[in-house]
Amino acid sequence: MDKKKDKYYGVDAGFRNTKGFLVPYKGLRYHLQDYRGSEREPQNAKELFNYRHSSLRNVIERTFGAWKNRFRILKQGMNHYDIDTQVKIGIAYAVLHNYLQKCQSSDEIFMVYEHEDIVAEDIDQQMAQSNNVGSSSRSHDREMQVQREEIVCTMWEDYIKD
Predict the structure, then answer these.
(1) Which of 27, 31, 40, 61 has its CA 20 to 30 A from that of 74?
(2) 43 closest CA partner among 17, 21, 25, 18
């Protein structure tokens, strides 16, 4: 299996690290504010992974926050649309978001959410758990753990080179 073609969701700790779901390491620093300041840099490969996982999650949540403020339908919900239409709407919003950012660089809504100091709200842990309980076998759990370790080692090697 070509690992470069594997796909997975970066999810919060409410999920299991199983096939298709890449979770942060539990029991280690995770949230961005835990890494603020020059003396609080990641100390090992797992902390670096958690820091980057948290950074990515924060960017995604800020993007959705901007979208919800810009495109009202996302606040109201799209449940009455079939899944194919929901996917198309999401893609259209991504295109519109990028277009507006390029053409209206002073857009107030996007400016509020573009600052990295804004920490997006955490995802509801109960919802995450209810969506992932009992959804995988132990072999899938182990497979994703191996994949996560490969990512972590590569990240750390690149990090200590710089």
Answers:
(1) 31
(2) 25
